Amino acid sequence: MASLIHCPHCGSRPKEEFSIRGDASLVRPSPSASDEEWHRYVHIRDNPKGRYKEHWHHAFGCRRWLVVERDNFTHEVFSVTDAAEAAKAVQA
Amino acid sequence: MSAHRLSSGGLVDRSRSLGFSFDGLDLKGYEGDTLASALLANDQLLVGRSFKYHRPRGIVTAGSAEPNALVMIGKGARTEPNTRATVAELYNGLVATSQNRWPSLKYDIGSLNSLLSPFLGAGFYYKTFMWPAAFWEKVYEPFIRRAAGLGKAVMEADPDRYEKAWAHCDLLVVGAGPAGLMAALTAARAGLRVILADEGFRLGGSLLSERVSIGGTAPSTFVETILSELAGFPWVTLMPRTTVFGWYDDNVFGAVEKVQKHIALPSLDLPVERLWRIVARRAIMATGAEERPLVFGGNDRPGVMTAGAGRTYLNRYGVAVGRKVAVFTNGGSGYQAARDLAAQGIDVAAVIDGRPAAGDNLPNGIRLIQGGGVVKVKGRHRVGGLLVERSGFEESIDCDALLMSGGWSPIIHLACQRGAKPYWSDEKQAFLAPDVGRQLLPAGSASGLSGIGACLRDGVAKALSALASLDLTATSPDVPDVEGEYDASFAPLWYVPGARDKAFVDFQNDVHVKDLGLAQREGFGHIEHTKRYTTSGMATDQGKLGNVNATGIIAGMKGVSPAEIGVTTFRPFYTPVSFGAMAGTSRGEHSRPVRRSPLHGWAKKNGAVFVEAGLWHRSSWFPRDGEKGWRQSVDREVMNARTNVGLCDVSTLGKIEVFGNDAAEFLNRIYSNAFLKLPVGRARYGLMLREDGIVYDDGTTSRLAENHFFVTTTTAYAAEVMTHMEYCAQVLWPDLDVRFVSSSDQWAQMSLVGPKARLVLQQVVEDDVSNEAFPFLAVREVTLKGGLRARLFRISFSGELAYELAVPAGYGEAVADALMEAGRPHDICAYGVEALNVLRIEKGHVTHNELNGTTTPDDVGLGKMFSVNKPDFIGKRLSSRFGLTAADRLQLVGLKPVDKAKEIKAGAHLLKEGAAPSMTNDQGHVTSACFSPALGHPIALALLKSGRERFGEKIVVWDKLRGEEFVAEVCSPVFIDPDSQKLHQ
Fold first, then answer.
1. CATH fit for domain A4-91, picks 3.40.50.300, 3.20.20.70, 3.50.50.60, 3.30.2270.10
2. Chain A within 8 Å of B16 (Cβ-Cβ)?
3. Which residues form the signal peptide (chain A) (predicted)?
4. Which of B402, B409, B499, B687 could join B297 via S-S bond, C-beta 3.0 to 4.6 A?
């Protein structure tokens, strides 16, 4: 795992300030979505090797949720963006 | 006397004599000595006993790879076991003790193991101590641990301080030898922030052990010149005594600095060790090379050491390892050792060269045995001569020390710690560092070069290369000429045949050549398997001397190149790091934060007993004189709250202020019950679900203004709920206009409970708090007498008439004091979390004992708090799935023991009468239990299958852990005031 994360709000910070929630590609289904869709959203997770987008929380910093795109094999971090911006883009 | 101090020479300060002791023997050394050099100067060749066979062992190296010379240093609580004498800086009053021997180093009972050695080969323990299985833990393991050991850990607390720090630089140079010094100089002159770290207490690395001339001066003078220039740059940090032990992601390096390990009585104003995390834009690995021992019979006899170590003791410390020294080598290093010894007038018994033809010259008069090999080292506690074989003929050589050289291995650990594998070079006969990119460049002998001049030039080149990768340029410093270099080439010689004694590969773990052979025969041929089977490379030295030899020997056994065998995985730490350094200041009471309520002082002066709940120290109960045990105090506190009035600190609840135009809509989406229409000035109990329909947390939410809410959470989930709300607001619904901030620490909150609560409260509050003016669930900002603004909530966890009063944290204690004073005529008493718990169990209110990650709102009797009308909220959609609506779900019930003397315990299981205890017959379990002072007997809350239909049923409470089994009656979970009349009085 990366030792340093470049928070878009706080700059380069040690990873101990962050906590990881998981897959950032999940989109909460609408209430009318099928059982299967909700089941997949709540219970089913991929476990990919390689490039991966995750939700990280800058818990001991700005307390913003971030989307960290990284390679979970090489540990390279490609980008860190604010999750709200990403979420708005999806909803738009 | 064989090993001895020369009359002059070396870099020790002969004007400063230092006294130290070894196994009680008082000895003298000089400032600048290591413990090892000082021991050798006193002819103390025997310094330890080996791990398994308890063989006598001496000093093998002059550096951090040392496998044998491990001693305990220090006295009392400062005793540190397994310290390498070769890197321990000598100080006045140092106390060293040898390890793993009994009764003494010279007469060690454990050495009888040597006689048993035919039975103690690799895998011996696995094969022998298998039956009976129960014996392993109780008999075999304790015995083996006692017999095979290192130093003993001290049981006293460490009196010293440690700390952690971050450092940032443009270029980190690891190692202050020829390559490292030139790299640092090149970058420093270009204005880069440079950190130069070296594990030694004197910077200079191998240059301090050499006799060459650099630009016409001695190597030590050359080192001083560069260091004084570096010290003049404010952007350069020199870090001696600092071992860079690990390379981590993003070019962050771990390092440990020994700040006061060389001082008998460390100052308490400074740490003894400092753990650094160094963030480096670029780094240069100038870590040097390790000389390999030769693997021959008796190569572990005290007095046998590497040629480079012999030269270091001679040239740097002015100590000759013997009076008549033999050399066994497969390359130029041995020849240079012979030349150095001869230059100091030491008799060289012979140079035995494994190669049939040598390419080097020896001074006149030194005998050279080409194509020979040592097959035995005579003597027991020290070298007493050699048996050398050449072309089938054996010959005895008279000597008192033996220097050996099996070639050189670049020290490449850092570059291999992040998964990259080293590669084998036939040309260098060594494993070389992989290309790990521009962030970390190997330089000098760490990159496979030999010769001081070559290393000086490479240091400059690698620094320029690092600068170039940062788009910076620099001028190359002049590299001085080096005179007196030797040819350090060597030919492979992995193992000397014909051994008449054990030929050790891993000295520290007593692994010899036969063990490696056994591992191959028994199917543990892969190098990683061989390591685990034989323990080769698993000692505290991590095989720094032995691993490459092990690979070479296995390659020879299989008839393949070492490239095909490879090496085992490199991992941090390069050398052992103390737990103290890793803990830093996080120890004892400082190992985690302590959270104290703003009412802590109030609770303390009222005699509270505190309990740790998470990070919080909460007032648990308030004993009074004459009370025997906590139960008596708690019963009194409960009854007093039910009949008079009690005051309880509830400041630890999580508190979140929520603002924004969409604040109500937001809360409506995260709670299962409705919040849109909550009027201003009212509080409402709320349930939060997880997305899978299970209850997450509960608490009250108050509407202070149209767009300002005040949310409380349970104490335990305060941080989690805040994080959850942030996720919902930022990720799920970023379009909502809502903001929140935690105010958990800003408010002191106290609960005033009991029929006389209003009487007491009215004396402190200006505003009218009558039932009409301030009804149940009213919330308002009020003014206290004296003018302080406060928040008043009429909410109740106990089932009594109750108020919660919140004041700014700093006023908490004064307001609590005022309430106690006002309540004195009404017999007010403080109560703690124990009484709080009893009160809520009597009332049937749930906590996380019941909201335990498996229950739905309906399970705990709060089904009406699940809004079917709201279109969407967290947890709504999956609440309707089959499993969560099943008829036989566990439901919240109350329990009363039929025999009123029986105490129900939380965790007990419930069974139908007559049913055998089993998972199939399990009907549920007890979640909360207490003695009810209001009812006068024990009661409990439980989760029971279809529980609400079973009120009145007799059920067996079965507690296997405590061996109890008795009958209880199922009843409503609300034991007192089922119509909640008290709340509205």
1. 3.30.2270.10
2. no
3. none
4. B499
